[in-house]
């Protein structure tokens, strides 16, 4: 009798082991095949999530099959899972919200893996998109994990969504300078800069009369991958050229006048006896 029981336990264990090994191999093959097929038709983050979904569903089936071989009734497991689901439902609200938010983000296709995005004060490259969170790699090589729910509730700027970008510069020149001359110099610099695009044309706006300077906006267009090179080169060239043309870039200051214009503020020293 004991030998018979031992043989039965061995057979159950052997079947369970076969199911686990064969099932894991099958799940991996299906996941890889689905990934290769979907990679050509869907965005990178979508096909990665589908691969993970197939992986998790596959292992759920494997576990349920093993439990059935062992003799555990599936109905009992589902009933216990239902009770546990109610017990842990409130605790899992945040996770469920993140999963739903993640599905919305995927359907919107607002960004893809490799895009540079900004959420709040955080700027980084999208490293991965998961069911619960999105991982960013900042430019100082820091790793940032942001829950999907935060993305849905916040403004997200995709900096590299389009192939070209505009570099916006806000300048100030002294009141004695001619803004039309400054405009011509800036357009000449943009025209000769190797990174600045001819189309769209640069933007020049005489924006305001500031407290200490004439306010000028100047924007140039460039390929998105040339941001640092464009900004460095255009800033150096503007500073060098304005120096050559003796055009003053003022700093905030207060001018105190003497003489007639300051009469209301004159002081008189009184000698005390």
UniProtKB/TrEMBL annotation:
Keywords: Cell membrane, Membrane, Transmembrane, Transmembrane helix. It comes from the Bacteria. Signal peptide: none annotated. SUPFAM superfamilies: Mechanosensitive channel protein MscS (YggB), C-terminal domain (SSF82689), Mechanosensitive channel protein MscS (YggB), transmembrane region (SSF82861), Sm-like ribonucleoproteins (SSF50182). It is found in: Cell membrane. Residues 53-93 form the Mechanosensitive ion channel transmembrane helices 2/3 domain. Pfam families: MS_channel_1st, MS_channel_2nd, MS_channel_3rd. Residues 94-161 form the Mechanosensitive ion channel MscS domain. GO terms for molecular function: mechanosensitive monoatomic ion channel activity. Residues 169-249 form the Mechanosensitive ion channel MscS C-terminal domain. GO terms for cellular component: plasma membrane. Its main location: membrane. The chain crosses the membrane at residues 12-32, 53-74, 80-106. It is a multi-pass membrane protein. Belongs to the MscS (TC 1.A.23) family. This is Mechanosensitive ion channel family protein. It comes from Candidatus Mcinerneyibacterium aminivorans.
């Amino acid at each position: 009798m004991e030998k018979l029981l031992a043989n039965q336990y061995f057979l159950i264990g052997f079947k369970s082991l076969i199911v686990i090994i064969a099932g894991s191999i099958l799940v991996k093959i299906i996941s890889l095949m689905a990934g290769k097929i979907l990679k050509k038709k869907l965005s990178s983050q979508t096909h990665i999530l589908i691969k993970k979904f197939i992986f998790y569903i596959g292992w759920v089936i494997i576990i349920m099959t093993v439990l059935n071989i062992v003799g555990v009734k599936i109905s009992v497991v589902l009933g216990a899972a239902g009770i546990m689901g109610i017990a842990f439902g409130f605790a899992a609200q945040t996770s469920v919200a993140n999963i739903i938010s993640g599905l919305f983000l995927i359907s919107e296709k607002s960004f893809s893996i490799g895009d540079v995005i900004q959420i709040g004060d955080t700027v980084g490259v999208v490293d991965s998109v998961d069911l619960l969170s999105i991982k960013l790699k900042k430019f100082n090589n820091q790793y940032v994990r942001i829950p999907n729910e935060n993305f849905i509730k916040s403004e997200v700027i995709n900096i590299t969504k389009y192939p070209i970008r505009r570099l916006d510069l806000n300048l100030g020149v002294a009141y004695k300078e001619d803004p039309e001359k400054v405009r011509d110099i800036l357009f000449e610099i943009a025209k000769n800069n190797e990174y600045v695009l001819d189309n769209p044309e640069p933007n020049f706006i005489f924006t305001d009369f500031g407290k200490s300077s004439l306010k000028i906006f100047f924007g140039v267009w460039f390929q998105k991958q040339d941001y640092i090179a464009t900004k460095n080169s255009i800033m150096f060239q503007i500073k060098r050229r304005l120096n050559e043309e003796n055009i003053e870039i003022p700093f905030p200051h207060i001018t105190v006048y003497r003489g007639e214009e300051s009469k209301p503020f004159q002081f008189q020293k009184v000698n005390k006896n």
